[in-house]
Structure formats: C-alpha cells, structure tokens
Design goal:
This protein has 233 residues and is α+β, with helices and mostly antiparallel strands. 60% of the residues lie in helices and 7% in strands. It folds into two domains: 73 residues, 3-Layer(aba) Sandwich (Glutaredoxin); 131 residues, Glutathione S-transferase Yfyf (Class Pi), Chain A, domain 2 (Up-down Bundle), CATH 1.20.1050.10. The N and C termini lie far apart (57 Å). The model has no long low-confidence stretch (mean pLDDT 96). This is Glutathione S-transferase.
Length: 233
C-alpha cells in the first residue's frame, strides 16, 4: 500500500546527490516538500537529523529519517512501488549497485579532484586519466546493454545514480579546463546523457547552467587552495 505520510527533503541546489533523490521522487510521482539547506552554515535541523555526517540529502518520511543518497533511492523504491527503479532480478540489482558505487568512487571523485587540483599539472593529469579510464568502463556497459538507458528502455536506479555524468561532469570539465566526456570517444555515453537530460522527471530539475558554473568556479578555487596548503604543510 502506498504510504501517505508527509515527505520532506533537505537538499542543496548544486548537489548531484540531492538532485538525484528529487529525480527518483518525481519519477515515482511522490509529493514532497523541498527544504534548501545552506551547507556552509548548517541549520540546527540538519545537524539534528544527520549528526554523524552533517550532510545532505536527508529524506524525512513521517517520523523516519533516511540518510545517504543511494540508501534513500532504495528506500524510495521499496516504499513507493509504482515505476520500479531497481531491477527485480537479484543479479541485475547487484550489478546496478556495483556500477553506481564504481562511478561514484572512480569517476566522480577523480573528476572532482582533477577540477580542483591547482598548480600541479602532473597530479591533475593523474586524476584526469583515472576519470577517463573509469568512463571507458561505463561506456562499455552501455554498449553491452544496447538500450536507451542503463535500466533498459526506461530510467532506472543506475541512470539516476550516474545522472551526474549528464550534467555536472560537463560543468566540471568547463571549470577545470579539461576533457572527459568526449562524444567522439564515448558516443554511447553522449547519447545516454542526452536521453537522460531530456526526460520529463529530469529536465525541469537541473540547476541553471550559468549559476552552477559560477558556483563550481568558486568552489574549485576554494578546495584547490586547501589542497595546495595541505601539500605544503
């Protein structure tokens, strides 16, 4: 039975982790209240609800609090049964979780570090190389699947988990003056990204491009300065 308890989401407008939760809620047709969080001046509500990591997203469903975006996605899928996003087959479900974790740890983190690294071209190239190699593996999965999305002909868990590739990654490339998602090298990824961005549940829930570029220009300089300072120390 579909839950009727109130749903709230604490998020941050520029966070791919917060936005992926909104994509899932929109796909499911779940009504929710969005609460914008200032991650640089964290609210008492956030600190109370997530005292361990003190991060967004935080999903509130009635009196239940769910943390961490991948865990939230699974909770959403198990709570609202319409439009399933996780594969029903146990093996396919395990593989979706594997590739979601792989993309986050190998592609997202290396791309982020490549964007933020300043003054050390060798280190930047190392991160960039690892990001490109990771995307190559993801490209092969798309080619092997021969479908519009990772989940087949409709958006699924892995598409949502890897949604950052379609929008955030090109922004980071622009900010970091680097190339990862070369469409001539990764045509399957480019086609998937276009399909994903144009989906009704996604296209109206993407941060304004000019605003997010400015934000990450500022953020990358801040993180880069911290990295450089730690290196000297």
């Amino acid at each position: 039975m579909e839950s009727k308890e109130a749903v709230k989401l604490l998020g941050f407008w520029a966070s791919p982790f917060s936005v992926r939760v909104e994509w899932a809620l929109r796909l499911k047709g779940v009504e929710y209240e969005y609460i914008e969080e200032d991650i640089f001046n964290k609210s008492p509500m956030l600190l109370e609800l997530n005292p361990v990591h003190k991060k967004v997203p935080v999903l509130i469903h009635g009196d239940k609090v769910i943390l961490e975006s991948f865990i939230i996605l699974e909770y959403i899928d198990e709570t609202w049964k319409q439009f399933p996003i996780l594969p029903r087959d146990p093996y396919d479900r395990a593989m979706a979780r594997f590739w979601a974790k792989f993309a986050e740890e190998k592609l997202l983190e290396n791309a982020w570090m490549a964007m933020c690294t300043q003054g050390d071209e060798k280190e930047k190239e190392m991160y960039l190389k690892q990001a490109v190699e990771s995307l190559q593996k993801i490209e092969q999965e798309l080619i092997k699947g021969k479908s519009k999305f990772f989940g087949g002909e409709s958006i699924g868990y892995l598409d949502i988990a890897l949604g950052f590739i379609s929008y955030w990654l090109p922004v980071w490339e622009e900010v970091g003056s680097m190339t990862i998602t070369d469409p001539t090298r990764f045509p399957a990824t480019a086609g998937w990204a276009e399909n994903f961005r144009s989906h009704p549940a996604v296209k109206d829930k993407l941060p304004p491009r000019d605003k997010i570029v400015v934000y990450f220009q500022w953020r990358s300089k801040e993180i880069g300065a911290q990295i450089a300072s730690a290196r000297k120390g």
